[in-house]
């Protein structure tokens, strides 16, 4: 099933995060992926920031999870306590420029201390099971080598007016 197109507000927020990272991170590897149903920014191979609809996803120290979760406009990514340190920050909690900069700088400050997720093995389990089989061995040729089990990330769709610089609407009044 194809993904739904992102709302213009979401695209603007993604651009705002992209711009903030460009201003604050120099000489560091930054990649964009889709994870947890969010558009995330990986800094040095670790999830640091992201966007889900109109919310900012931030990764902060798990030790301060309970304290941060009590802040107005902030909610944990997982309600079951499975992802301590991951928060969705609502528009009311990043509405002013200093609030926005607080969340960006806190996520970037924690990033060097964050634990990186180990890389998955990229071996193709299905093809290793079927490598010795021939089309006449009970499998069709079309069934061989499919279903590698790997997830591929896609780049975010680029809007038609992508060349025009955009700001998030919360900063239009400043």
Largest sheet: 6 strands, antiparallel
Distance between the termini: 41 Å
Structural class designation? alpha+beta
Report the total helices. 4
Order of helices and strands: HEEEEHEEHH
- Report the count of strand segments: 6
Provide the fold topology:
Elements: H1 8-24, E1 30-35, E2 38-43, E3 46-52, E4 55-59, H2 65-69, E5 74-76, E6 86-89, H3 97-110, H4 125-130
Antiparallel strand pairs: 1-2, 2-3, 3-4, 4-6, 5-6
Protein name: Regulator of competence-specific genes
Organism: Comamonas testosteroni
Biased composition (Basic and acidic residues): 160-174
Task: Please describe what this structure looks like.
- There is one protein chain.
- This protein is of the alpha+beta class.
- The chain has a domain at 24-84 and 94-113.
- Helices cover 24% and strands 18% of the residues.
- It has helices spanning 8-24, 65-69, 97-110, 125-130; strands at residues 30-35, 38-43, 46-52, 55-59, 74-76, 86-89.
- Strands 1-2-3-4-6-5 form a six-stranded antiparallel sheet.
- A hairpin with a 2-residue loop joins strand 1 and strand 2 (38-43).
- The radius of gyration is 20 Å and the shape is globular.
- Mean pLDDT is 78; it is low at 127-166.
């Amino acid at each position: 099933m194809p993904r739904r197109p992102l709302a213009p507000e979401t695209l603007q927020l993604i651009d705002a995060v992209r711009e903030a990272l460009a201003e604050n991170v120099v000489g560091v590897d930054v990649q964009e992926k889709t994870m947890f149903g969010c558009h995330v920014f990986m800094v040095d191979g670790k999830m640091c920031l992201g966007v889900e609809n109109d919310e900012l996803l931030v990764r902060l120290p798990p030790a301060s999870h309970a304290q941060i979760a009590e802040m107005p406009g902030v909610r944990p990514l997982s309600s079951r306590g499975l992802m301590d340190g991951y928060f969705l920050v609502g528009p009311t909690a990043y509405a002013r420029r200093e609030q926005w900069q607080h969340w960006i700088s806190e996520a970037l400050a924690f990033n060097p201390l964050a634990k990186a997720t180990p890389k998955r093995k990229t071996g193709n389990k299905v093809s290793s099971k079927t490598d010795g089989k021939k089309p006449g061995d009970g499998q069709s040729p079309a069934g061989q080598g499919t279903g590698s089990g790997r997830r591929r990330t896609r780049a975010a769709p680029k809007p038609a007016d992508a060349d025009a610089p955009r700001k998030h609407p919360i900063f239009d009044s400043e």
